[in-house]
Amino acid sequence: GNLDLGANTYNCETNGTTANTQYDVLAISGTANLTNAKLAVDWGTFVPALGNTFTVMQYGSHTGEFSAVTIPPVPGLTFTMTYGNTSVIISAIAKQTIPWTGTANSNWSNPSNWAGGVVPSATDTVSFPSGASPYQVVISSAVSLGTLTLGSNCTLTLSSGSSLALNGTFNINSGATLNVGTSTIALNGNWNNNGTLNAGTGK
Asked: How far apart are CA 104 and CA 102, in angstroms?
């Protein structure tokens, strides 16, 4: 039959690479409505390796995509989401710079705004390419990253109550704007500001 997950969270326990035996697979014979639903992966004691894939959902057809995807970080790896005609697949690939696409809205936490369909995590490198269409990006929660580069035409705004922690370098290129307001930034690497900083009362 069909399944509408609503605003519920699909908790996928993963302890290996064998479907249904070592990791969960949610199988729907009809249409799966993923809009507004969330996906949370739990690796347990398992450590994924480069090239591992996990078919975490199967369906006859689907509408929408998960509104939020939580995948615990693994050193040296990043993860992509593929929404196919009959399945959702998580793939472990080599860590790379994760670009913003902004195809859905300005919300940093929306996975549909990121290439690969997964919001960056604490060890990821993130970039907003220079010379592209204007990017208006809003952080409304606590975000931790490896490094971050704001290209020209990018405006990053930290809304009230949010925070940004960086373990690496923060580059604000010429033509980029950072609006901090009353929020906070914790930086454990280098700070290279060639753009516009509106600090407000944050730190």
From this structure: 6
